[in-house]
Amino acid sequence: MAVTTSLQTPPAATPQPSPVIGDPVGLTVLATIFAILQSIANWAGVPLYNLTTSFIKASVLMFYLRFFVDMTYRMVTYGVLFVVVAYGIVNVAATMVLSCTSKAACDQVFRVYITCAAINVATDAAILLLPFWLLRPMKVAFARKVGIALILMGGGFVFGVSIYRLVIIIIVDSEEDVTYAWGDSVKWR
After folding, report:
1. Membrane topology for this entry (predicted)?
2. Which of the pair, 12 or 168, is modelled with greater confidence?
């Protein structure tokens, strides 16, 4: 008798909260593990992504500086480098400080994300176009200049992805279900 009473379910009047969160695919994750993963992504993933992007851009710009002695070009390159480092620091600090806890807080987070994504597109465009300064004074055939330009424009894909991410972030800002809509932006980080 004692064994059967311990296996009985509680009455229907007191429903038990489920410790599991389900998704449309049918996979389940414990709520505590999900919270830990979300915290790790917020405190490690996003800042590391932003730092990595800034370091890659800075290294490309420093690589460009090795080829040019023209003072104007060097000043423009250092200017772009300053913008890359500054927006990288601001983006990392903002993602660590700001959190989406209310509608007003989420609006503030999205304003920071949209601003940083726009600056990201601008710096990608500058990094993509800076090598053309190198091609202008070269005394080689036009076909060879076009070939060199195509090699140097290999980063054009990254520029396209940056534009796509900016558009997606603007769309996500106007969506009702931010969690679902944010997935399209995260895929292209």
Report:
1. Multi-pass membrane protein
2. 168
